[in-house]
Amino acid sequence: MNGSQSAAGKRRRVGVLGLQGDFQEHLEVLREIDVEPVDVRRPEHLEGVDALIIPGGESTTISKLSDLYGLTEPIRERARHGMPLWGTCAGAIFLATRVPGRPQTILSLMDMTVERNAFGRQVDSFEADLKVPKLGPAPFHAVFIRAPKITEVGKGVNVLSRLDDGTIVAAQQGTLLATSFHPELTPDRRFHRYLVDLIDRS
């Protein structure tokens, strides 16, 4: 069976929160892996979506727009009922339960502490090859842009990857997934496929 389809042969539909940030890049990757992409901008766009990606961008702006368009609570409820949710960079901040000094609403879904802009400014962006055992033996080339750090995780959170200095940069709690980096900016589609696999497990 094609991983982009359900057991009944139905093509998977994965939403991307299209309020701000690099949502377009995620939509393009989903098309590439034969998943039906959905640009989510209003609560009704969540209907029939099997999973949701919250992209990188500016976390405060994403949060304010999510509140403005009435999306915050519907996303929270869908996730609590088992819909897989993946936050990349700013999206990981939005997913967290603890963000020190946060000026914005957060979903408070994933038991982790995330520090905003922890690696510095735009000029401090960097790339690194990560070990991600869940994705196989090959390293994952990750792009970090004004990235947050996952500084603490709860007992129910599985650490998927760390930098060489031990900093957590990818984690999973059930059907919730968080990465400090931007998988959509590389040709490696394994994280997107991993999200699709979570739909079958949910």
Could you provide a short overview of the structure?
The chain is of the alpha/beta class. It has 5 helices and 12 strands. The protein has one domain (13-201): 3-Layer(aba) Sandwich (Rossmann fold).
Plain-language structure description:
The chain has 202 residues and is of the alpha/beta class. It has a single domain, classed as Rossmann fold (3-Layer(aba) Sandwich), CATH 3.40.50. Helix content is 23%, strand content 28%. It has 5 helices and 12 strands. The chain has helices at 23-32, 59-68, 72-80, 90-95, 190-201, and strands spanning 13-17, 36-40, 51-54, 85-88, 96-98, 110-115, 126-130, 140-144, 149-153, 158-162, 168-173, 176-179. Strands 2-1-3-4-12-11-10 form a 7-stranded mixed beta sheet. A 3-stranded mixed beta sheet has the order 5-6-9. β10 and β11 (168-173) form a beta hairpin. The two termini are 17 Å apart. The mean pLDDT is 92.
**Helix content bin:** 10-25%
Compute the average pLDDT.
92
Instruction: Order the strands across the largest sheet as they lie in space.
Output: 2-1-3-4-12-11-10
Oligomer: single chain
Count of helical stretches? 5
* SSE string: EHEEHHEHEEEEEEEEH
Gross CATH architecture: 3-Layer(aba) Sandwich
Strand content: 25-35%
Gap between N and C termini, in Å?
Answer: 17 Å
Q: How many domain regions?
A: 1
Q: CATH superfamily membership, which one?
A: Class I glutamine amidotransferase (GATase) domain
Radius of gyration, taken over Cα atoms and rounded to an integer in Å? 15 Å
